[in-house]
Every structure is written in C-alpha cells, then in structure tokens.
Amino acid sequence: MEIYIVQPGDTVDSIAWEQGVPVDTILYNNQIPFPYRLAVGQALLLSKGESPENAPPLFSGGYAYPFISPYVLEQTLPYLSDLYVFSYGFTPDGDLISPALDDSFLIESAKRYRVSPILTLTPFGPDGQFSNYLISQIVNHPDSQKNLIQQLLETIQEKGFQGVDIDFEYILPQDRVAFADFVGNVRQAVNTLGYPVSIALAPKISDDQPGLLYEGKDFALLGEAADTALLMTYEWGYTYGPPMAVAPLNKVRQVLDYAITRISPEKLSLGIPNYGYDWTLPFVKGESKARTIGNVEAVQIAIQNQAFIQFDPIAQSPYFTYEKDGLEHEVWFEDVRSLQAKFALISEYGLRGAGYWQIMQLFRANWLLLADTFWIQKQ
Known about the structure:
Strand 3 (about 55-65), helix 3 and strand 4 (about 80-90) form a beta-alpha-beta unit. It contains twelve helices and 17 strands.
C-alpha cells in the first residue's frame, strides 16, 4: 500500500493513470462516492502490489453497539481478533444488566469470522453516565461482587462470549486498590472458563496525575490484575473541549512512555479513534459542543465546502477549516497518514495490538492499511 496526497487539478482518473492503479480500486479502497470528487490535501490509499511477507502479528479489537449495521460489521470482522460488545451494566447488588437490544447477532457473526466476542462491562447509572457510586458498591461489597461475577460466568456460557472487558471510568481515588482487586477476582473466575479479561485504561502519563479519570486507575496494579490492557489514547480533542486532534501523536507517545514502565508492552493495545469532530467557532468553554463525524464524512465535508485539508506535523493528524452559513468551522479527524503513524508506534514499542473506539462507521482504508502492516491474529 502507498499513500498519495491529492494535489490541485487531480482527478481519480489522472491519479489512476499516473500511479498505475485501477480507478475502481481507488474508489473502493477510499470510499469515494459519485461524482468522485476529491479534496486538495486528501490522503488516498493506493494498492500497488502484494502485501509484504513476514508481517508482525497483531491482536486487533473494536467496540460495537448491537445496533451496528450488519454490512459494516461484515466488512470489519475480517480485520479483528476481538469484538467488544458494548455494553453490559449492573445494579448495586451485582445483578447483571444486558444491553437494551439483542446482541446475539454480534456474537454469532464474530464467531463466523473466528473473532472472539467479548462482553464489555460498564458501570453506567440511570442517567447513562459512568457512576462511581456503582463502582464503589461493587468493589467494596463482597456479596454484590460475588453475585456479579457469578452472573458474568453464567452469561458467558449461555450466550457464547469468549472473554470480558472491564471499562470503568471515574473511579474514586480511595477505590484504587479495591478496583484492582475486583479486576483480579473477575480474571480468576473467567480464566477458569479458558477466557481472558482485559481492562480499559485512561491515558495517564504519571503515577500521580491528578483528575478523576486517572487517580483511581493504578497502572501497575491493573497490569498485574488483568490479562491485557487497552490504552484509551484518544479524546484529547473531544465534544466539549477546544478544537484539536482527537489522538495527537505527541500526546499518545507520552502515554506510552509512561505505560510501558508499569505494564509489559506485550499486554498493551493502543487505542485508536475511528471518528473525528467538527467544531463551530469561536469555541466558548462551557457552551460549545463539537459534532462527532466519521472519517469518510470529514472528507466529504471538505469537498462540499471547497476546503484544503492540511496535516499537522506534530499531532500527525489531518484538519481543515471552512465557513458555512456565516459560521467558521474547524475539523480534526483521522486519515491513512495519521493511522500509519499510530501503527508505527505499535511496532516501535512492541505492543500487543490495537483497539478501536468504535467500529460503527466503516473506514475501509484503515483496515486495508492495518492488514498491509500486520498479520491479524485470530482464534
């Protein structure tokens, strides 16, 4: 695979002729819709030959809600090792709460592609937000914890899951050790079925980093408690924050530099965002709210507004600005250049794999580049 940056005057036909790649291949790989317009600065993935031999192995995972499009799921599963079904909750007494929609088709589809379906456990309260009250209840009350673990085991066996992913956020600092013990207890139980337990980790850069996202997650303890861990290296640019890259490479590297001192790299997966944001300017703290967009959608927004896509060399991320209805906008998203830079980090640090939040929208070029760079491990 090669990456080509669209220049002024380029068309799909002219690029195909100059690069020796069929037009249909360019259109398909890059999800270019009729009438096949391009944005100046757009990064295209071109198939130029056979994939390299002896590619390093990689475990890849992706989170999905039960309402994912069957087509998107079928297109994505060939490139996954694990499918994280999002999500299962629980009550203060430890009663497991299934997703509102039936998730059986996710589990069955995953197995057809030799992908492990993973039960994702989250502590969502009635308001749909992470609840540190629920976390405290379950990690500090043995009877509730025992009940939850027993129901997890029963659900795994009944529905055919092949592992558990624990995605708890906003853990109180005083629950730091109890939470790690809880993860260890879940792992001990789930391992008896022959399945692993993973833990999602906020992007810390030091042991004593302040903030409710970080203080309750002890990387060293959790690295010992779980079989594997996913670093949630995204959301620097987020819905309520100022415009910036979702996963700037310089910030991601800081997290990795710290994480590998507390957890073996062979246990770690790099979190990768499969989305971007569109901010309306000016940004006003406490008032502004960015719109979540897909990576393919971002390019179409640039085309519709005749915007020039630029690439930040430090964040290693594409962005552009445009004006619509008298309002200025700023967009940051992912393309094959930013993804190639993240894949290089996986190799550089010797990480176990990659984990995507989330796979609800198809970004085909990402998966083609991933498969060109690594050999995807299956069951």
